[in-house]
């Protein structure tokens, strides 16, 4: 049951849902972008369970490390994980990128999936400009028994549709703002994925956190089944 006591107020700037991880299985995620380092630290101090701070800047990281000892920083993903308890290992998530410029968003997805107890298999820079690069790592992922694949792509965003047309497991497409020119902020990739002829699920532009969380929920449930 949802209880009003499950909300903790931090000053006048935050109301924390302290039971989110227990309720839905996803660790609390604090978006550091747009918050001062002091606000981020105070919010994290008021939380229970495992916590992921996303879009971490240099000053955020310095302040977090002064306050907490176990800060696991991923430079590529710009995330800081504070893990207080290990999650039971369940499920396997594949993470693929079209280009090297897409790795930051892919790493964000991978960090979330790993925090939720999933094993993560990665294959980076295997996009359609050299589609033959995709086949060996994709075959290896399927041999490893991945339950779901997150495919991250910018520019025209074609790769998720191709992967979804080749495998019999769920595929989550993540459009990335790594292109340039017309549609270069991820709009072209998003529209392409939404118009996919393959059966593809799509999250918002640069939403590695959302893709990783959804993938982990699928993988964990698949493992239980």
Question: What topology does this entry show?
Answer:
Layout (H helix, E strand, L loop, with lengths): L6 E4 L3 E4 L2 H5 L3 E4 L5 H9 L5 E4 L3 H10 L3 E4 L4 E4 L9 E6 L5 H13 L3 E5 L8 H12 L4 E6 L5 H6 L6 E5 L11 H8 L6 E2 L5 H17 L1
Parallel strand pairs: 3-4, 7-8, 7-9, 9-10, 10-11
Antiparallel strand pairs: 1-2, 4-6, 5-6
Task: Identify the CATH architecture of the largest domain.
Answer: 3-Layer(aba) Sandwich
Strand content: 15-25%
Largest sheet: 5 strands, parallel
Helix proportion: 25-40%
How many DSSP E strands? 11
Low-confidence stretches: none
Apparent shape: globular
Order of helices and strands: EEHEHEHEEEHEHEHEHEH
Number of domains: 2
| Cα Rg | 18 Å
Structural class, by secondary structure, is alpha/beta
Largest sheet strand order: 8-7-9-10-11
**What is CATH's topology name of the largest domain?**
Rossmann fold
Number of helices: 8
CATH class of the largest domain: Alpha Beta
Tell me the distance between the termini: 25 Å
The whole-number mean of residue pLDDT values reads 90
Which oligomeric state applies?
single chain
In words, what does this structure look like?
There is one protein chain. The protein has 225 residues and is of the alpha/beta class. The chain has two domains: 4-82, no CATH class; 92-224, Rossmann fold (3-Layer(aba) Sandwich). Helix content is 36%, strand content 21%. The strands form three sheets. The protein has a five-stranded parallel sheet, with helices on both faces. It has a four-stranded mixed sheet with strand order 3-4-6-5, sandwiched between helices. Strands 1-2 form a two-stranded antiparallel ribbon. Helix 2 (37-45) packs parallel to helix 3 (58-67) and helix 4 crosses helix 8 (208-224). The two termini are 25 Å apart.
């Amino acid at each position: 049951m949802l209880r009003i006591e499950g909300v903790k107020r931090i000053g006048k700037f935050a109301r924390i849902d302290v039971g989110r991880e227990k309720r839905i299985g996803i660790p609390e995620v604090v978006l550091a972008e747009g918050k001062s380092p002091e606000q981020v630290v105070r919010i994290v101090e008021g939380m229970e369970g495992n916590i992921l701070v996303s879009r971490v800047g240099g000053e955020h990281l310095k302040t977090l490390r002064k306050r907490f000892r176990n800060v696991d920083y991923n430079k590529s993903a710009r995330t800081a994980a504070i893990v207080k308890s290990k999650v039971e290992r369940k499920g396997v998530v594949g993470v693929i990128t079209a280009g090297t410029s897409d790795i930051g968003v892919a790493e964000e997805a991978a960090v979330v999936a790993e925090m939720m107890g999933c094993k993560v298999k990665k294959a980076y820079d295997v996009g359609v400009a050299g589609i033959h690069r995709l086949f060996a790592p994709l075959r290896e992922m399927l041999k490893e028994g991945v339950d779901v694949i997150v495919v991250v792509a910018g520019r025209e965003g074609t790769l998720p549709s191709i992967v979804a047309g080749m495998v019999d497991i769920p595929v989550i497409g993540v459009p990335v703002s790594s292109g340039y020119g017309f549609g270069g902020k991820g709009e072209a990739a998003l529209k392409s994925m939404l118009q996919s002829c393959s059966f593809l699920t799509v999250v918002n532009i640069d939403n590695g956190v959302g893709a990783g969380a959804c993938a982990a929920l699928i993988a964990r449930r698949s493992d239980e089944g």
